[in-house]
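Sequence in, structure out. First:
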Amino acid sequence: MSLSAKELVQDPKFFTEILDYTREIISTYDENQRVCSVFASQQRWLMALAGFALYCGGIDGEPPGIHANRFANYIVEHEIASHNTALSFIQEMLAFGFLRYLPVTSDRRTRPMQPTEEAAMQLAKWMSIHLSVLDRLDGGKRNALFSKKPELIGLLQPPISVGIIENDDLRNPGETFDLFTGANSGGIIMDYLISRIVTINTTTQKAVIGPVAFTDICNRFLISRTNAKRLMNKAINMQSVGWTGSPGRSQLWLSTAFIEEYRNYQAGKLAIIDAAWQTVLGTRPVGVPRVKQSFTSAVP
């Protein structure tokens, strides 16, 4: 039986694991800012999940595969982005080397594409990080099996993507979460702020996370000073974050309401990942179905 979001939130170890998770995410970002910055808003991340899922699992009811209009139609149908934004995203993924065209077909409107090895590697790393969190919570061995059978990603990823895309609570977990994930680089900045938490003062309902300078945020997370200030000022007006003194030159605090939004989102996401794992594998680590779809090099 898979872990529920409620069970995860109630686990006394859960928040500590989430803090470790954020630090691993930040470390991953530091290793490859170029890749991570591409998916640093919720809209772009949801589009990436949808693209993988169409390719691996045909989540729109058609056989597995992806082409531009099919992708755009799915994105519009699920209210992730406009048709033009979806098509622009495809072009960016091709330019970044995360997608490539398959040999030309007779109908260029349905020219098929596939994720590259680079894209698959980044998704596998994301999957591994989350499976490891679940393993540490219940003593499981999901990630060890995933490491031995990386082809499992083709079976796990479609139900995970659908679970996230069709979950209203994950699409809109709270005003502050939505504020950060709606901004370019906002998602990774939010991960960074949460990663700085050491203790939460139950009396003030705040967690003081130490000095946070705008210059550091801008340089590290590839965001302009204007946009960083705008983002933080909106969060301040919502009373989700604040400074203990001079803005940008003193210690920053996060409200418990903001922290709970983040915690609840992570619990919901991990519950979906665990449910997919249990559905695909159950308790039997053998006899894994073969995955027909494959990932390729970015070089034709």
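Second:
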Amino acid sequence: MPKLRTVVVLAGAALLARRALRRRVQDSPLWPLPALDPPVSGRPRSRALRLLLASHETVAEGVVRLRLEGRELPRWEPGAHLDLVLPSGLVRQYSLCGDPEDTSSYTVATRLVPDGRGGSREVHEQLAEGMELEVRGPRNRFPLVEAPSYVFVAGGIGITPVLPMLRALPENAEWRLLYGGRSRAAMPFLEEVEKLAGDRLTVVAEDEEGRPDLDALFTDVTEGAAVYCCGPEGLLAAVEERLPAGATLHLERFAPRTSTDGNTAFELELRRSGRTVTVPADSTVLAAVREELPDTAYSCEQGFCGTCQQRVLEGEVEHRDELLTDTERADSMLICVSRARGERLVLDM
């Protein structure tokens, strides 16, 4: 009996040891080396929702408004945007321009960009009422802050994040708005904006030979004023140049800065795969990585969606995205737009 008991005990111990070893190997196939942290690339930054496209209507020349319906949708605040996953798989970001209190639908609008990368054309020409679409978000990198006064500058479709801000301002708030576009017919929500703003609004339409007078707009701006601007890069640069002393600037870009001026080539080590590549001055980290790892996840290629986020192990990053928080930038980057500040970067890939 003692021998039998010993055999049973040893067999049980061996079984437990095999199970523990199996779990260890599953956690780290390279055991006894330590398990690697899971990569961050390709993970949705927020829960995906499937919503019904209830309305697809033209609201200005070249601009359509989408109303996406669901139930008990996450709340949002002025300045927030959605990631819209198109049937083709493209992901595009659109500012919410409806009512933040409405938890049954989201409203966005987009302008057709004929020579763009295909996302706006798909929205305009291939989406139809009754379709089910995936969205992620909302997220807000352009929040409305408390301030003694406000100056808003919107260019074309850049009115979409500004419109909910105007609705949310207290009745006694001090504010003014400059709204510009190619023509009045191409400026979405112009009628509503005119009703909301009254004499606080300046409309500049290029077909009426109008030009934005930013110097006049910024006359007598009070200390601590919040200046909000959304529009094309030229407009944003002009606002930055003329920002009055004592005012705070809040910008939302249609796309990240794409200038390659000052870019230099650098060495990129992909630590997990044991490969080292060179990122040319006129190319991106994403392009260099996909030469070696073609299955690397990416989507917007503009630093907005977060699909290509990667963990940085060594090196200093020049962040050019419009998404990551300061905490996230401490140890990760979006490889579609950001680069190395120095001569070398090491990624956990």
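Remark: The first strand starts at residue 48 and ends at 60.
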